[in-house]
Amino acid sequence: MELKAYAPGIYPRSDALVQATRDLDRGRVTQEEVDGQLERDFRELVAVQEQAGLALLSDGMLAWQDPFRPLADRSEGLDARPLTRFLDTNTFYRAVLVDGEPRLREPVPAPNLPAGKWLATLPSPHAFAQATGGEASPQALAANVLAPQIEAYALAGCALVLLADPFLAREGGVQELLSSLGELPQQTPLALQLPFGDAKLVLAQLAEAPVAAIGVDFYATSVDSLPEKYPKEIMAGVIDSRSSALESPTEIAAFVEQLAERQPAGLSLSVNGDLQFVPEPIAREKIARLGRSQTTLQEAV
Amino acid sequence: MSDVRFLTREIGSLGKPSWRVKTFAGRPLEERDFEEAERWGKRLDVDGHEELVEGLHAGSLSREQVDDWAAIYALRLLEGAGLDVVYDGEQRRTEMYDHVAAFARGFEPRGTVRSFDNKYYVKAAIVEPPSVDGPQDVEEFEFVRAHTDRAVKVPLTGAYTMEDWSYDEHYAHEGALGGSAERRYEARRRFVSDVATNVILPNVRGLAEAGAEWIQIDEPAATTKPDEVPLVVEGFNEGTRGVEAKKSMHICFSDYSALWPAVLELDDCLELQLEFANRDSRELGTHDDDRPGYAETLRLFKEHGYPNVGLGVLDIHSDFVEPAELVRDRILYAVDVLRDPERIQVNPDCGLRTRSWDVVYEKLANMVQGTRLAEHELNRAHAAPAGA
Predict the structure, then answer these.
(1) What pairs with residue B86 in β-bridges?
(2) Is B181's Cβ below 8 Å from some Cβ in A?
(3) What residues of B are in contact with residue A21 (Cβ under 8 Å)?
(4) Three-state SS across chain B?
């Protein structure tokens, strides 16, 4: 059995990058100096993931200020303004203001990673629409912003696009999501991740979604909530990105064996949301433990 | 019926003077820092402020002495603006969460997490049941008590906010993967209860024994998870149990509709001091349409009848100085909705730490002046002969 593991989403900045960005705001360093530290953080993160044996590499979205900002900044008709609490965390994103027909002007550049070896994380069309307060439709955002972004990533060798939707499990909206996913190009496999929410009520509805895998937060969702013989791969969120407690690979392995008994179409391991909710040294150790969990399970098989 | 008279208060933190910040950061003071110490010393008529300026120049003051001066300056600023109830602007505290987490056993710092953009905060983890050797803020209170003749209100971070802003490596760690929502809730309840009983209550009791007449429990995280508001209430009740002092709770930037009915179970809570002005129009007027930031929440106070309201009338996120007439209209509107001026007292939305002292002084002075205008209107209406 090949069990893959991934660490998608926004990764925390190192203390050095935190200080550099603070200093940038205070006019003490230049953007070039911050860019230099961003590159060092990026290389460190790649090394951590490679060492952990993760199947695909993430760039950690280190320059992304929140899950929507670069897309809003690079689109006609969208702007980023009021601070809005991200779920029940103490981290805030800027809600997306709509002042015209949304259209991606220029895609976010692809990371400098080997073709076929990396994954990208984007907001799902539904999550993006939620961030606009319903002012833009999931279909319009999918067709005019996310689709060209995914095409640009595909051309750069992206192997998997993970669509993160932190709102779906909490607030519903599966039908709106499903009707928008058809607007997205399918040449690169898509996965839908449901960070930090109990997926119990939406898993059945998502069984036929045009995505290759569903990411489930198993710190908010019980095993019993996963229907037997689920027809999609479950990207099991077994690393808690909101907790500083370090997971035991042995416990994760035991838990995944429980999950496997429910016979989903496939299983992979992941974080349950952006690792940016823990400090960088802890995130680094969590990735290492994700890798060790993967190894433990493969050895068991 | 006696004349209406509202109490004017601050909520908590003020910005720290640059000479205090640099002293603690180990950075050299510059001429403008000395000038600031002198300017505010004169403006606030601080007794002996020349000693501070000389000491700063000479570098002869200990950190404790600098803290004392910062506390005295903050007190004089609040008194000078005309407030009835004062404290020291939390000049000795690093920040409301860290102040407690760094003092109590059981919390360990974990590192930096992003708040938004390039702003970050330091977060700790609970690793064992929290405990303290004694009350934390008695000396701070006694210094304030000795340096003002105004009424004093002591702000303390609440148990629920300490829980919500911490990582949990003790209560929820085991069995978290695949665990039930009930199990998670119970873990959070035990965490809140232990902070309230083992950390907050000893401090509250110590303060009351030292003569503190008013304790304000700050719970900015109160409605972050709306289904956990009962835990906020439990934390307040356990953290103030058996204490005779006046008790109140401050909450801000939250969904207040989530507070009721749970807050009806608060034991002997004088009032909820809430942020309103941030949501309100800056236009004058006392009708519903004029006061969009107040209408909905005040109706909840009216409908439920408990507790009383600490009316936030100053937006702490803006340098806009609210005219006295705007403060007046916000108060008059609240009186009109609640139909009982005795249920209302007046304060800023929250601590004013992000504003300069110049702006703070003007805002607070206008708050006091606007309060007097509102009282005048109400007392004049009351005194007018029937049919007039």
Answers:
(1) B152
(2) yes
(3) 118
(4) CCCCCCCEECCCCECCCHHHHHHHHCCCCCHHHHHHHHHHHHHCCCCCHHHHHHHHHHCCCCHHHHHHHHHHHHHHHHHHHCCCEECCCCCCCCCHHHHHHCCCEEEEEEEEEEEECCEEEEEEEEEEEEECCCCCCHHHHHHHHHCCCCEECEEEECHHHHHHCCEECCCCCCCCCCCCHHHHHHHHHHHHHHHHHHHHHHHHHHHHHCCCCEEEEECCCCCCCHHHHHHHHHHHHHHCCCCCCEEEEEECCCCHHHCCCHHHHCCCCCEEEECCHHHCCCCCCCCHHHCCCCHHHHHHHHHHCCCEEEEECCCCCCCCCCCHHHHHHHHHHHHHHHCCHHHEEEECCCCECCCCHHHHHHHHHHHHHHHHHHHHHHHHHHHCCCCC
Instruction: Check if B165 contacts A (Cβ < 8 Å).
Output: yes
Mean pLDDT over residues B68-92, rounded? 98
Rounded alpha-carbon distances, angstroms, from residue A217 to A87, A242, A244, A278, B72: 14, 11, 16, 16, 51
Scanning B113-142 for CB atoms below 8 A from A yields 113-118, 120-121, 123, 125
Taking the Cβ of residue A112 and every Cβ of chain B, the question of whether any pair is shorter than 8 Å is answered with no
Report the share of chain B in percent with pLDDT over 70: 99
Q: Is the pLDDT of residue B388 over 50?
A: no
Express each pLDDT in B296-320 by its tens digit: 999 999 999 999 999 999 999 899 9
Give every residue of chain A whose pLDDT is below 70, as ranges: 1, 301
Contacting residues for A239 by C-beta, under 8 A, at least 6 apart: A7, A247, A252, A269, A270, A271, A272, A275, A286, A287, A289, A290
Nearest-by-Cβ selection for A245 from B112, B169, B221: B169
- Taking the Cβ of residue B2 and every Cβ of chain A, the question of whether any pair is shorter than 8 Å is answered with no
Task: Please compute the mean of the pLDDT values over residues B259-270 and round it to a whole number.
Answer: 98
At A283 the three-state DSSP class reads: helix
Which residues of chain B are within 8 Å of residue A234 when distances are taken between CB atoms? none
Residue listed under structure tokens 């993760």: A54
Helix pair angle (B63-81, B49-58), 10° resolution:
150
The ipTM assigned to this model is: 0.93
* Residue B80 to chain A, least CA–CA distance (Å): 32
Question: Which residue of chain B comes nearest to A222, CA vs CA?
Answer: B178
CA of A68: which chain B residue's CA is closest? B117
With contacts defined as CB-CB under 8 Å, which chain A residues touch B178?
A: 218-219, 221-223, 255, 258
Please give the CATH topology (third level) of the domain spanning B81-383.
TIM Barrel (3.20.20)
B182–A contact, CB cutoff 8 A: no
Given an 8 Å threshold on Cβ–Cβ distance, is A18 in contact with B120? yes
- CATH code of the region A4-15+47-300: 3.20.20.210
Q: pLDDT tens digits for B179-210?
A: 888 888 999 999 999 999 999 999 999 999 99
What H or E segment, with its residue span, contains residue A146? Answer: none
Nearest CA in chain A to B111: A279
Measure in Å the smallest separation between the Cα of B111 and chain A Cα atoms: 5
pLDDT of residue B383: 79
pLDDT for B26 equals 93
Please tell me the predicted confidence (pLDDT) of residue B130. Answer: 98
Q: Number of Cβ pairs closer than 8 Å across A and B? A: 93
| Confidence category of residue B173, pLDDT binned at 50, 70, 90 | confident
Instruction: Among B118, B125, B176, select the one facing A240 at the smallest CB separation.
Output: B176
Each domain of chain B, given as residue ranges in start order, spans 17-80, 81-383
